[in-house]
Design goal:
heterodimer; A: mainly alpha; ABC transporter involved in vitamin B12 uptake, BtuC; 3% strand; B: 528 residues; alpha/beta; 6-stranded mixed β-sheet; 17 helices; 26% strand
Chain lengths: 360, 528
């Protein structure tokens, strides 16, 4: 080996190589970002109204819903799993919250009805959504069930429970009553801070927290490790089961948050709320460059992915493209993004080789 | 061979040693087999306790028990004379028992630093102190006299460097007992030297080492106490100074070691394979294969020797079509080979027995039979259906010819010992009816008995007019088996010797060409 290596030379080599991988990573992340710019440019050129401040806020509001789900999903996919239940948990938490506001907690044996405060309702709904994720995680780790199966089960169970809550009917007009002290639920969806809707702030807050957790905290690193090589992580002393359960709980929590936001925005809770949201969330994660095999990806990428899907969706609607074509285009874009990812990786190798041939 | 009492014999004859860790009457039963049968084992403070035995002798199982990965069926583990209960690797590492696993256990998607501190992150208020971690990682890498970039992804490192990371990871913990399960299987001679210096340094600091290896000379060089296992039992326990290689082999296999490493003369025929100007550039500069030209004759065993990363594996990968050269020509029997895929190369008559048996040689979920037939399935088909009778005839014949020890070819491949698994890989290659066999480290990680059987098979194949390319980093093996030896260094051919000319010194000298101390900064490549 290189004993007697000049340490300074080594240092400079190391530095150079860091920047090289940095550039590569930047390009890889940039790919989704370039797609976003491209989509924006196309729609803006077709309709200048597209990037008006009002419209941008509306689009971002739509994006926030998917982005929050996708952040939770990123944790799951990074750990090498998948969560198909998020859409159903959105529906279930919406129904739980709607029911608690309109009907309270009924205790017929005692003949009383308890109307919890709005903040309690929020806490209860979040707790139930999180619990659903925890149960999925528990089933996956304790009984060694494949994440696909366990969360698919939860997809049906949670959706079924959402329907059972009010026999398939909607809870309309969930504004509460002042005499019960449970008003104000609609503020979550309609309120704003500095002119920006709360849902967008929630997305920003979740993104920052998730970014710190994935890049700066031991838990995040363990998630990456499990996705990369579960056995190695286990033998290194990472608590696999605990980490996985937390990962699915995070996804459940994010889903519950979205359930509350949607119910609040609509001022109603419908049992089919969030149907197929899991697919858009997965699409955002994948578009953002996270590997479905686990271990590779980032929160930043997921956000960009969510924006690409959101902008594309709203743009196509504004252009008056038929909903069927919208689906065709969205599907094609998702697959195309992954293809580009693969092609680019291969191209990098080839370019590097070519360069070398030229210099020799 | 069982002249020594296998039951705990505390207090070795040397000076008053303190025993740190004791495995006391451990028995471990797996479904169908007894992996460890009432075994006792002592670890002395500040000494290297070597554990040796053929594959399946139970060494690794015992180490897994000591590291908390497996729990014994009966028996106990004592640390400083007190019984300890190891339920998980975490428990063991808390008590200061570290382990370097035989199979590399790293997260390829994480950086070197992240791997070193995995599950032991240095945190401040819940936030990882990356600067501190990086500095410590650099210190560890320097201690191992390496120049690996700590931010590089482990997946981008050579396998030898990955092994260094695995060692650094173990050193990062404050260990009292460090288990090393074949730590040198992917290291070059100079890297082994460095590791041994580190081990001596650890010993001086009172760390006890348990060392497992198949390389016998290595064991005698570094060990203080030698324990031999066979078939799940302890068969001998001796001070290293009283031990010789023949004694070790005898204890391990219970067989006369003179039968090992024999070479039969065989006739060498016409030129079979001709390679000209084969070139494979490396991403990031330099060459993996630097304009190679050589030929191989019928019935010839052509050995390729070189240090890790000299390009030997890249060469056989290129010939097998797993990597494609950018330049160069290949002729087989005088016909130019232009095919660009592994499938076509197999059809042309090349077959590769890859270095990493577990990952590239076998499909772990398939049976012995299915693995064996994987490369030649087309030959057992009638229209779109597989002919199970024909399959059975072919596999049974291979099992017989290579004396693969299986109860049934339907057995899962994972139930076989390393040596028998390797024979299945060879059988898979032979069933494609090749002309040129490319054997990349065919004896890596298999025991002495299985090695001699693999050599026997190679000899026989040469007699049957196959051309055999034999890549190995074991000097003795290359010298004993090859009709001709080509030495590679940094992707180039640096020496060629006939069987009679070749000596250990000549090979070592040639393999070190281009490895002068002046090549500083080559931190990622063939130069290591």
């Amino acid at each position: 080996m290189d004993q007697g290596t000049n340490p300074k030379l080594q240092e400079s080599k190391n530095k150079r190589r860091i920047t090289k991988t940095d550039v590569q990573q930047f390009l890889l992340k940039g790919r989704a970002f370039i797609a976003l710019i491209l989509v924006l440019v196309v729609f803006t050129s077709l309709s200048p109204q597209f990037v008006s401040p009002d419209n941008v806020v509306i689009i971002t509001k739509h994006v926030a819903i998917n982005a929050i789900l996708a952040i939770g999903m990123t944790f799951v996919i990074l750990s090498g799993g998948i969560d198909l239940s998020v859409g159903s948990i959105v529906g279930l938490t919406a129904m739980i919250a709607g029911g608690l506001i309109n009907e309270g907690i009924q205790l017929p044996q005692l003949g009383i009805i308890i109307y919890p405060h709005t903040w309690m309702i929020v806490v209860i709904s979040l707790a139930i959504g999180t619990l659903m994720g925890t149960i999925s995680g528990f089933i996956i780790t304790r009984f060694n069930v494949a994440p696909f199966i366990a969360t698919m089960g939860m997809l049906y169970v949670a959706r079924g429970l959402a329907g059972l809550r009010n026999n398939g009917y909607t809870f309309p007009n969930i504004v509460g009553r002042p005499e019960y002290g449970n008003t104000g639920f609609q503020i979550l969806g309609a309120g704003d801070f500095l002119g920006v809707n709360y849902s967008i702030w929630i997305m920003v807050a979740f993104s920052i927290i998730a970014y710190i957790v994935t890049t700066r905290m031991a838990f995040g690193r363990h998630v990456y490790a499990i996705g990369g090589n579960e056995r190695a992580a286990e033998l290194s002393g990472v608590r696999i089961n605990k980490t996985k359960i937390i990962v699915y709980s995070i996804s459940g929590f994010c889903s519950a948050t979205v359930g509350l936001i949607i119910a609040s925005q609509l001022v109603a809770a419908h049992p089919l709320t969030g149907d197929t949201f899991e697919l858009t969330a997965i699409a955002a994660v994948v578009l953002g460059g996270t590997s479905l095999a686990g271990g590779r990806g980032s929160i930043g990428g997921t956000l960009i992915g969510a924006f690409v899907i959101g902008v594309l969706g709203d743009g196509l609607i504004m252009m008056g493209v038929s909903s069927f074509w919208q689906k065709v285009i969205k599907g094609a874009v998702i697959v195309l993004a992954v293809i580009i990812d693969q092609v680019q990786a291969r191209m990098q190798d080839r370019i590097a080789l070519q360069k070398q041939q030229e210099t020799k | 061979m069982l002249e020594k009492d296998p039951v705990l014999d505390v207090g070795s004859p040397v000076e008053a040693d303190t025993i740190v860790l004791t495995a006391h009457n451990i028995t471990k039963v797996f479904p169908g087999t007894v992996a460890l049968d009432d075994v006792s084992f002592n670890v002395h403070k500040g000494k290297v306790s070597v554990l040796i035995g053929e594959n399946g002798a139970g060494k690794s199982t015992l180490m897994k028990i000591l590291a908390g990965v497996e729990q014994p069926t009966s028996g106990k583990v004592l640390l400083d004379g007190k019984e300890i209960n190891l339920k998980s690797p975490l428990d063991a590492s808390r008590l200061g028992i570290g382990i370097i696993y035989q199979e590399l256990n790293l997260c390829l998607n994480l950086s070197v630093v992240d791997n070193i501190f995995l599950a032991r992150e240095i945190c401040q208020n819940g936030i990882i102190d990356k600067k501190n971690e990086k500095q410590k990682a650099i210190d560890l890498i320097h201690r191992l006299e390496q120049s690996i970039n700590p931010n590089e992804l482990v997946g981008e490192l050579r396998i030898g460097q990955q092994q260094i990371v695995e060692i650094a990871k173990a050193l990062a913990q404050d260990v009292r007992v460090l288990i090393m399960d074949e730590p040198t299987s992917a290291l070059s001679a100079s890297e082994v030297e460095i590791l041994f210096r580190v081990i001596r340094d650890l010993k001086a600091h009172g760390v006890s080492i348990i060392y497992i290896s198949h390389k016998l000379e290595e064991l005698l060089q570094i060990g203080d106490f030698i324990t031999v296992f066979r078939d799940g039992k302890k068969v001998a326990d001796e001070e290293a100074s009283n031990v010789t290689v023949p004694w070790l082999i005898e204890k391990m296999v219970g067989r006369n070691p003179a039968a090992l490493f024999t070479r039969r003369e065989h006739e060498i025929g016409e030129v079979l394979l001709k390679v000209e100007d084969l070139t494979l550039p490396r991403i990031g500069g330099g060459y993996l294969l630097d304009h190679l030209s050589f030929d191989l004759r019928e019935g010839e065993i052509l050995g390729f020797y070189g240090l890790m990363g000299a390009g030997r594996s890249d060469l056989v990968d290129c010939l097998a079509g797993a990597k494609l050269q950018t330049k160069g020509k290949i002729w087989l029997n005088g016909c130019p080979i232009t095919s660009k895929s592994v499938t076509e190369r197999i059809k042309a008559g090349f077959v590769l027995v890859p270095e990493d048996r577990q990952r590239y040689g076998l499909v772990q979920t398939l049976s012995v039979k299915d693995n064996m037939l994987l490369a030649s399935l087309k030959n057992y088909m009638k229209r779109i259906f597989l002919l199970s009778k024909k399959e059975k005839i072919a596999t049974d014949q291979q099992v017989k010819e290579l004396s693969i020890r299986v109860a049934s070819t339907q057995q899962p491949i994972t139930s076989l010992s390393g040596g028998n698994q390797q024979k299945v890989v060879v059988a898979k290659g032979l069933l494609t009816k090749p002309k040129v066999l490319l054997l990349d480290e065919p004896t890596r990680g298999i025991d002495v008995g299985a090695k001699s059987e693999i050599f026997e098979i190679m000899n026989r194949l040469a007699l049957q007019k196959y051309g055999v390319i034999f890549v190995s980093s074991e000097l003795k093996e290359v010298l004993a088996l090859s009709d001709r030896i080509i030495v590679m260094s940094k992707g180039a051919i640096t020496g060629e010797f006939t069987h009679d000319e070749a000596t250990e010194e000549k090979l070592v000298l040639a393999s070190a060409i281009g490895h002068g101390p002046s090549n500083g900064g080559n931190n990622n490549g063939s130069g290591n």
